[in-house]
Design goal:
Blueprint lengths: L2 H8 E7 L2 E6 L2 H4 L11 E5 L4 E18 L5 E18 L2 E4 L10 E4 L2 H10 L6 E7 L6 E5 H5 L3 E4 L6 H14 L12 E5 L12 E3 L13 H8 L7 H19 L16 H13 L1 E3 L2 E5 L19 E2 L2 H8 L14 E3 L8 H11 L5 H4 L1 H5 L2 H9 L1 E2 L2 E2 L2 E5 L8 H26 L11 E6 L14 H13 L5 E7 L7 H4 L4 E4 L5 H10 L18 E6 L6 E5 L13 H5 L8 H8 L2
Parallel strand pairs: 10-21, 10-22, 11-19, 11-20, 12-19, 20-21
Antiparallel strand pairs: 1-2, 2-5, 3-4, 3-7, 4-5, 5-6, 8-9, 8-24, 13-14, 13-16, 14-15, 17-18, 22-23, 23-24
Length: 601
């Protein structure tokens, strides 16, 4: 009797469900492959009468003992192993197809799939030129698990997992492999990755990256859109907010017209230079403005061109301006005004205190050292082109595939706006670059030949499932990329330990998931809702995954797999602190003066 025949008699399918196959095995030693152990996560091959094989993965097994009568009529106990396996797909004619609903009934034969057969499924599922590998099967490290690199990076990616599950190492491993893969003899490939690093973890993982932190970050305030500008500079809870917003919009628009006189279409939201100090001058003058009561178009600026004693006026006293001329004059400097006097000098339209709090807040914000990356001298003078070059790794004399933006020093109250501005700039870069390519060559098929991946570490900090005003800017920018970015060569990689707190609009756009160990029941339920129903109980393994293991699922992989992520080298500085080992060592002194100096930088 050959081994196949004995195996066939030894094992048989006893039940088939849409998401589960039950197999009865009498003797596991006969059933399993030589030199291979059979365990949860091993693969089985179920053959039918039409030369097709259903590939399944063992989810659980149990031992069944039943009573049978032998030839003499005596009862004896028969021990059987009942294996429950999840159907992954069908091998037919050497090709693997997802889904297990096309197998002819009844199945003919059940045997363990060999390592070579599993390797073949993974290797032949993706053409070599599209193959990208960063993991192996958790159950068998000799089997590499490739993904389709195009489908992986041009569809949004989500990495989720509790603290300590290995998210940072996974993220680093993926990007390190992506930037080091080349099709030719050159120093840099054409990958472009921007990492928003909120905990200052990734400088060590990418030592050659274009590293930007609070000390060398320069983002021109004039590139902020209306929502972003007002979120920083206006107090949305104030009673006079509408007046403040109206005045501010007018001043910014007029100042943009002043500094961009060659352009005909200039609006409040147009990304053009304006001078923030001149706007501050105008605000100061508006809140202190006085007018001639006898001629309301004459403004009582202290000036040598006319005489005004003790605020007494005639119809010719004061400087005569139209509304536009007045605003232009107010940009020049902070002026002194003659004080009010009954029937002679009266307060201006905004001099009743409606702008007082706004001016104090405005002045404090634009002069704050912590916000110099937005309102400082370099942010004021840096060009639009230079800003993009810095963010995209095109610095003069130093090119880099990866830009790490260390946000740990950015004040929390402007974190959302900082992320929003950078995200929006990169999206609009993709949009206009596509337009330029199509204008240059109308037959162009590739929208963007310099595609960009935006990586949001701790994404729930920028795009939470919240309607709070402070998150509005970043949510709006990132949601737009999630919905439209792929068309313009801008995709997302979201990493989070609290996926249930991320905007559902953004998460639902992800097509590739790397689900690591998740212990929070709310997060587990949320992720299960986003993953395909066809995963069956595979998704329940999230709670028991080891560090560095993940469920890899999405359009880029031939079949959902539990994988072990390849170790990254060098590593991010996110390793757990060995408390107990450190506590047992001798007392360490601290230099509080040095600490204070670092704190106050």
């Amino acid at each position: 009797m050959d081994s196949n025949e004995s195996t066939e008699q030894n094992a048989q399918v006893i039940a088939v469900f849409p998401d589960k196959v039950k197999i009865s095995v009498k003797d596991l030693e006969i059933f399993k492959n030589v030199d291979e152990t059979l365990k949860v996560g091993s693969y089985l091959k179920i053959e039918d009468s039409e030369n097709a094989s259903l590939i399944t993965i063992i989810e659980n097994f149990q031992i069944s003992i039943r009573d049978v009568k032998d030839e003499k009529g005596e009862t004896k106990h028969v021990r059987e192993h009942i294996i429950e396996a999840f159907p992954l797909g069908v091998l037919r004619g050497g090709k693997f197809e997802r889904g297990g609903d096309s197998l002819a009934i009844p199945p003919k034969n059940v045997i363990p799939a060999t390592v070579d057969e599993i390797k073949k499924i993974y290797e032949e599922s993706i053409e070599e030129k599209e193959s990208f590998t960063f993991s192996t099967l958790a159950a068998n490290p000799s089997v590499k698990v490739p993904v389709n690199g195009n489908k992986f990076f041009n569809k949004h990616i989500a990495i989720v997992g509790s603290t300590g599950s290995g998210k940072s190492h996974t993220l680093s491993s993926i990007i390190q492999k992506a930037v080091s893969t080349k099709e030719g003899d050159f120093s840099l490939n054409n990958s472009h990755v921007i990492i928003f690093d909120i905990h200052s973890e990734y400088k060590s993982a990418f030592p050659n990256a274009n590293y930007i932190d609070i000390s060398n970050l320069a983002l021109p305030y004039w590139l902020l859109n209306s929502e972003e500008l007002e979120e920083i500079l206006l107090d949305t809870g104030e009673r006079d907010n509408y007046n403040q917003s109206s005045v501010f919009r007018k001043l910014v628009t007029e100042n943009k017209k002043k500094h961009n006189s060659g352009l005909t279409k200039v609006f409040y939201d147009t990304p053009l230079f304006f001078d923030i100090i001149e706007v501050q001058n105008a605000l100061y003058n508006l809140k202190n403005e006085t007018k001639n009561s006898k001629a309301s178009s004459r403004y009582m600026i202290v000036d040598d061109s006319y005489t005004c004693t003790d605020s007494s006026t005639s119809v010719d006293t004061g400087l005569l301006f139209s509304e536009e001329e007045k605003i232009s004059k107010y940009f020049e400097s902070e002026f002194q005004f003659h004080p009010t006097k009954n029937q002679n000098v009266t307060k201006g339209d905004y001099a009743e205190g409606t702008l007082d709090k706004f001016f104090v807040r405005f002045q404090e914000k634009i002069n704050q050292d912590r916000l110099s990356f937005l309102f400082g001298s370099e942010a004021k003078t840096i060009s639009f082109e230079k800003t993009l070059e810095n963010l995209l790794g095109y610095k003069t004399g130093y090119k880099s595939n990866i830009t790490v933006i260390d946000l740990s020093g950015v004040p929390f109250e402007v974190l959302s706006i900082t992320v929003s501005l950078i995200s929006r700039l990169i999206f609009e870069h993709g949009y206009f670059y596509k337009r330029l390519r199509c204008t240059t060559d109308p037959s162009e098929k590739i929208n963007n030949d310099v595609p960009i991946l935006l990586v949001y570490e701790e994404a729930h900090k920028y795009v939470p499932n919240s309607e709070l005003v402070k998150y509005r800017s970043s949510k709006k920018s990132i949601e737009r990329i999630a919905k439209e970015g792929r068309k313009y060569g801008v995709t997302l990689l979201l990493a989070s330990q609290r996926p249930s707190e991320i905007s559902e609009t953004i998460f639902s756009q992800c097509n590739n998931f790397i689900a690591m160990r998740l212990t929070n029941p709310v997060d587990q339920s949320y992720v299960k809702k986003l993953l395909p129903d066809s995963l069956g109980s595979l998704v329940d393994k999230m709670t028991s995954l080891k560090q560095g293991e993940a469920i890899l699922v999405g359009e880029s992989i031939i079949l959902p797999s539990i994988v072990k992520i390849d170790r990254c080298e060098p590593q991010p500085s996110s390793n757990d602190i060995p408390y107990w080992e450190l506590w047992k060592t001798e007392w360490k002194g601290l230099n509080f003066e040095e600490l204070k100096n670092e704190w106050y930088k």
